[in-house]
Amino acid sequence: MNETDFERQKILKARAAALAREPEKSGAEGERIEIIEFLLADERYAIESVYIGEVYPLKNFTPLPCTPAFVLGVINMRGKILSVVDLRIFFDLPNRGISDLNKIIILHDGGMEFGILADAIIAARWISRSSLLLSLPTLTEIRAEYLMGVTKERLVVLDGGKILSGKGIVVHEEV
Amino acid sequence: MIDKDAEFLKKLLVTFKIEADEHLKGMYSGLFELEKGVAPERQVELVENIFREAHSLKGAARAVNQVEIESLCQVLESVFSSVKKYALPTSPGLFDLLQEALDLLTRILPDAGSERAQDDKALQRQLIGRLEEAGKGRIGETEKRGNGAEEQMEEVSPIHRFSDSPIQEVFTLPPLSDSPVQKVSSVSDTVRVSTSRLTSLLLQSEEMLSAKLASSQRVLDMRTAGATFGDWKKEWARVEPLVQELRVSAPQSDVREAGHEPADSKRSLVRLLDFLDWNSTVIKALEARFTVEVKSAERDGRALGSMVNNLLDDMKKVLMFPFSSLLEILPKIVRDLSRENGKKIDLTISGDEIEIDRRILEEMKDPLLHLVRNSIDHGIESLAVRKAKGKPQRGSITVSVFPRDDKVELVIADDGCGIPLDGIRSALVESRALSGEAVDELDNPELLNYVFQSGITTSPIITEISGRGLGLAIVREKVEKLGGTVGVETATDVGTTFRIVLPLTVATFRGILVRLGERLFVLPAMYVARVLRVKPEDVKNVENRETITLDGEPVAMTRLASVLKLPETNAGAGAVALLPMVLLAASGTRIAFKVDEILGELEVLLKGLGCQLSRVRNVAGATVLGNGQIAPILNVTDLLKSTVKMAAFSSLRSRDPATVSADRPRSVLVVEDSITTRTLLKNILESSGYAVVTAVDGVDGFTRLKSGMFDIVVSDVDMPRMNGFELTAKIRADREYGDLPVVLVTALASKEDRERGIDAGANAYIVKSSFDQSNLLGVMKKLI
């Protein structure tokens, strides 16, 4: 039992205590949605978890020629080929240096499926839909059509459904 | 309870609709054949079949409470019963009426189980009434009054009335009972399985192909690993005499010379020598074992390979469908369309028992319909014109299927007026695709090839059915996407024939694996006419375009990288003796594409790029290679089109700028665990003229450093196994590389981190959040 072991125990206990806590009860606020919060180029964003299939570590990818810049390439996900989109480029966000982008969040709904790049996954939590404020255009550079709203903590919640069904996202180009 | 019952009824209805659809198809095809006119024995058989289908459908409808369908079938059944007993002569009027009844059934069937529109109900009552009348022998008298045009169509009765038949041999047949319960067809060894399930099974079986490829890749990897034993043996052979020498000079370990001081060191030496001997025994045993394991892995791989091949073959056979499932829609379409156009057309179908992958049939539906519509609309002339030309009044369309080795040929021919070549000429000039002189130079087959180009139509009036000039382009695109080819022959007033050659299955095909820089691409082998190696001096400029000479003929040449808009890599420029090229050919165009390397031929399974990438220019899909890596499969038709387009805009490019830097490019080692950042840094540095090698973490980086010559290291800080600080310290401690410049690029922006980096010995510290490529390049320029 050295010090690091002790430290480790302490951390684990603290985590257990955090997990054991009952979720905040605020049923009166109406519909609650689960969101996944992630980091993208030093900014925190969230997406409703119903649109998220899984989170996948990006180990390798194959770039494709003749695709728009927002398409990073394709990955082999258990034998299935899946395209990966860089939302920073898709949303035309200003370039803020470089970041890790070594996680893929797989977005899906009935028909559409693709991965988006992220730096890190921060948390999954429940929020009440009514607590979302309609975003002020000054809060973020992302176009309003892809936004679901902003939480009180100024966390930008993206509209997964709109991103999946957005017209610009599908690549269909003839020579 | 009620819910359950409703649920059950719903399920029954689904099954009923499938069954009913089959009965309807049976009735349709029987009717078409009857109407066309066949031998008396066949007539009896057909009438009997149709009667049975109607009866079965009636029974099935009753079982699921579909009273309306049941009542309609009831009258159909009694009409056929009369025909069967030769009590009712067949006539065009009767066929029309029966068709109408079947059309109504087809229309109301999908909505079975829900409330029907009032119009449909009225139409049904009226139809039942007319059918009942017809059953009594009064065919269509009610409608004839209002539809005089019909009478003209009846001048030829295509079917002999039974009563007209001079030899009444039919009566020798056993009398048919009124209740057709005994089913003729044997259905005992078939089961109904939904195609979606079968398709999913096929996809899973196809997935097994990657297991097969992976297993052969594993064997290759093991062999490479096994080569290490050879190196070891060589080394050991060199050292072994030394070991023996030492052993001779050293006394045996069991001889004890107690009390003497040197004995201890000698004992150690002996122990070391013993250990070395033991080591070599172990390694030799290990090698023997490894060799055996590789052999069994190879054997297993082969067994797996043949199992997978058999499974795939059988799975594909399961999904093979006869062409008839596609062609059975034609009689109705030809009948309806020729009616609308006031033309008389006989449709002949042959070879429809030949089987082909169901997915190909599905894809071929639209092209086939388009070609047939074209034939009816533009090909077959109107009655008057045909008469004037001295042609038989009834036009003919034949659709035939022929087996061609491992392919199938689908031929759609008509005996109409042919495609007017002058029409194509003027359409070409009109659309400004070609100049008048250029058009005049084309010979007929070349000219005819243009009908497959979008925007070319020879039809003077745009009709409802066809004539928008897009159809044939789509036909060609679809056929080529399936890996097939399409051709056309035509002769004025003799007719037009379209020949479509299709592969039997879509699943796997042979591909040529090529390399461009570090990227791999697959070219479908069916479009690769030839693989070439051309001397650089044999590339000639003709009219400012690069060409090579092949069999005495000039062939256009381009670089695959520039068509794909990839940076041109000049790996080993100057040293290359021969330029590897792939000659691609499709739809009459041949162009040679220069690549960096041709790696070989392989079996590939085409996979889609996912639904977000619905269509990508020049890329048809992708395949997973044996090592799990993805290689894009290129779309050859697109590549040829892109090349032609590029040539139109730009003539020969200016000479490669890469040759400007005469001396050796500076080489950089990029150490970064995130693949995206690694790729980004690599791209930035390569486009600035550096030679880049990448590593995924500190340990990997240090190993690579030892195996190459580098001028500078660019490293991330936060990495698994060995971080950037540790790597920097390790480099600084190394005798050989101690002076190598190190640039740390990191997300850690605090002052302490920066100090830690400087302490470790880094020459520069760049924070990722404020990263800017000119900054990095500037820093690097200062350091080397």
Question: Could you explain the architecture of this structure?
Answer:
- The complex is a heterodimer of chains A (about 180) and B (about 775).
- With about 180 residues, chain A is α+β, with helices and mostly antiparallel strands.
- Chain A has helices at about 5-20, 85-90, 160-165; strands at about 30-40, 45-50, 50-55, 70-75, 80-85, 105-110, 115-120, 120-130, 145-150, 155-160, 170.
- Chain A is globular.
- By secondary structure, chain B is α/β, with parallel strands linked by helices.
- Chain B has 24 helices and 24 strands.
- Chain B has a 6-stranded mixed beta sheet. A 5-stranded mixed beta sheet of chain B has the order 2-4-5-7-6.
- Strand 11 of chain A pairs parallel with strand 17 of chain B, so a sheet runs across the interface.
Put the structure in a nutshell.
The complex is a heterodimer of chains A (175) and B (784). Chain A has 175 residues and is α+β, with helices and mostly antiparallel strands.
List the helices and strands and how they pair.
The complex is a heterodimer of chains A (175) and B (784).
Chain A: H1 3-20, E1 32-40, E2 43-48, E3 52-57, E4 71-77, E5 80-85, H2 87-90, E6 103-108, E7 113-118, E8 120-128, E9 147-150, E10 156-158, H3 160-165, E11 171-172
Chain B: H1 2-36, H2 40-63, H3 67-84, H4 92-108, H5 118-135, H6 141-144, H7 149-153, H8 195-249, H9 262-318, E1 320-322, H10 324-327, H11 330-341, E2 345-350, E3 355-357, H12 358-379, H13 383-389, E4 395-404, E5 407-414, H14 421-430, H15 436-441, H16 444-449, H17 471-481, E6 485-491, E7 495-503, E8 508-516, E9 519-524, E10 528-534, E11 540-542, E12 545-550, E13 553-559, H18 560-563, E14 579-586, E15 589-594, E16 597-605, E17 613-615, E18 619-624, E19 630-634, H19 636-649, E20 667-671, H20 675-687, E21 691-695, H21 698-706, E22 712-715, H22 724-733, E23 742-746, H23 751-760, E24 764-767, H24 773-783
Parallel strand pairs in B: 2-4, 13-15, 20-21, 20-22, 22-23, 23-24
Antiparallel strand pairs in B: 1-3, 4-5, 5-7, 6-7, 8-9, 8-16, 10-14, 11-12, 12-13, 14-15, 18-19
